[in-house]
Amino acid sequence: MKVNNIIDYLDELIPNAICELNYTKDYELLIAVMLSAQTTDKRVNMVTSILFKKYSTLEMLRDADIFDIMDIIRPIGTFHKKAINIKNIATRLLEDTNGIVPNNREFLESLSGVGRKTANVVLSNLYNEPCIAVDTHVSRVSKRLGLASEKDDVLKIEQKLTKKIPIDKLNRMHHQLVLFGRYYCKSQNPMCDECKLKQMCKYYKKRKL
Question: What is the pLDDT of residue 69?
Answer without folding.
Answer: 98
